[in-house]
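TL;DR need structure tokens for one chain.
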Amino acid sequence: MRYLIIGAGAVGGTVGGRLAQAGREVVLVARGRHLTALREHGLRLRVPEGESTHRLPAVDGPGPLGELRADDVLMLAVKTQDTVAALETWADVPVAGGGTAARRLPLVCLQNGVESARLALRRFRHVYGVCVWLPSTFVEPGVVSAAGTPLTGVLHLGRVPHGTDDTARRIAADLADARFEAPVVPDVARWQYAKLLGNLGNGLEAVSGPVASEEAQALYARVRAEGEAVLDAAGIPYTGAAEQRAARGDKVTLVPLDGTPRGGGSSWQSLARGTGTIEADHLNGEIVLLGRLHGVPTPLNELLQHLANRFAREHRAPGSLPVAELVRLADEAVRQGG
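>> reply
TL;DR here they are.
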């Protein structure tokens, strides 16, 4: 199989680089300065065992590839807010032997949240979801890092909306050869919703910095409690903490990488890079949506969604709102909307 990494940033670049190291055929899809760096210097992947450079085909879309191959796998690793544009770009690309990508090829959603797979099912017949547990960083154009060892990440994989098949198992086998654990599960959404609860802290981290102090941790606990209440009200199952610990164990331990400080998660990185967009609508915003549908107040998640989007629009530095001020705003939001 040939893997087309649509969005070769922190997650996509790491997965693409690791697959290339394992001898799999990989094409990177990127844009702007990142694409230029990939073409001129290759993908530089920094991991605990050292840095490697991978000279891989790098394109800005399907045009340079012509007809896609029947054994291609589309791995969608853009942020959720960029999903619709990516689906529109790739859905109608012809595949050798007849048909289009949307009809014939597997689309694997390597993304946070749960919305992208739903969007993909509107266009693509064969959609696979992944619960992405992969600490990685976009360091600079052409350079990504992943500090996990002995495995780089754990990627629970399954069909959307549910089930497994031989394609999922073949992809998982390739990922296993590339230093990932990729359990194939019939209920991948259950893992993704559990990850969503963890990702509710992304907005907090983005606006106020690491969730390290007692004050920040207490606020995150309140934010997560809202999320759990919403999922319970909606009847949406999610894996518990004990099951997640058992699945992950000590398989991915973070180690410092020289010259590559890990500043924060995906939302923090979006602000640090000044992209102008952030995935808050599909993390905290998913809880807000479900809360409105099921009559559960979500003032804290609504606040974080609003602040994260505002920070992105205004190109504000990540972590620039003091935690004490955020707690004050949170208390006020609860009084007004709780």
